[in-house]
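INTERNAL AUDIT FORM
Audit reference: QA-55
Scope: verify that the stored structure record matches its stored sequence.
Auditor: D.O.
Record contents follow.
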Amino acid sequence: MSNKRATKVAGRKDRQDRDKRTAQSRVITRSRSLHEVVGPDRLRGYYWAANRRPSTWHDLYARHFDQRSAYATRVGSLMPGRADNHADDIINIATVETAYATFYRVHARSHFRSGASFPENWQPWPEKVTRAERFSPPESVGWYLGLTVAAAFDEAAYYQAQATTTPAPTVLLVIECCLSNILYLAWPPVLMALWEKLALPPTDVFGMQLAIMDRKTDNAITDRIGLWARERGFGGIIFPTARYDARVSLEEEIAKRVRPPLLVPVINYVPVWSRLEVQGGLHMTAGIGDQLRFACLSQRGLKDDETLDVPAELNVVLFSGEQLQGTRHPVFYQTFPMEAWREASAQETRRDTWRNTFHVDLGAKP
């Protein structure tokens, strides 16, 4: 082969290789996200920065759901003895990896970004950094999601009531994702262990619950816990809402009483499919938590007609937006009109049911 011909063949091969690399790059960029409009205020999509090939929403979800579920439920053990003291041992047990679980957030319609822009939803702006939020004092950032529809509505209703201007139109954002290195603070044993470790003001377990559920968003107890958890390297905290007393439906029940009752938050434990639940620890201690609560009320000398049990939903605060940005695992999302979900949320199973039966079926067509 002549030098001229060899040069021509080599040049053609270089162009083919370059075109192939360009095509692969386009596929990678295009396959990172999926965005579908399925109706008014109804979007569906996913985002995963590491995706290398186009996938349907259902195939990608099914593959990662199975993989993550197997991982999250076997990581670690509930057997004690891994730490230097009892408090640290309990904290280690309550540090969970979740499988793919459903989280809810009331989101301003005009501020929601979908498709390739989905990670922009979780980038802090200057006002958020300086804002005081639960477990997130100024100069720290927290991203908040509810573990139930009611949790998202309770939070949104509270802040809308505080607003001095007309709230912007909103949608219900439903996210399926997996979270890592999360402290399950709603578990009574870890709450007591943390009180001991941080030398917080002495109280019984019911007083501890009320302290982290204080109506004041930025309070000394939650600020202390939030900063400690960041220093310890946690990715976030699962905690019971402070908005359990804000529902209109309570007014009628309270009006029936001769004296205003003490509202007793009864935590609605919902699964995030971690080892803490699957291996039985959380399921068993949910009952223990109730026993401790009743014992604390007895010590206070309160009778049944002087208290009123109120369901308290769970929230999660994430200390950065990274886990929602699809950098390590794909994040799946849907949006729904608010009016459609208010009616649906009334059917949500709460008390005395371990599994929350009201669950978004991300594999079903709308």
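Auditor finding: record pair retrieved intact. The chain has a mean pLDDT of 78.
Action required: none
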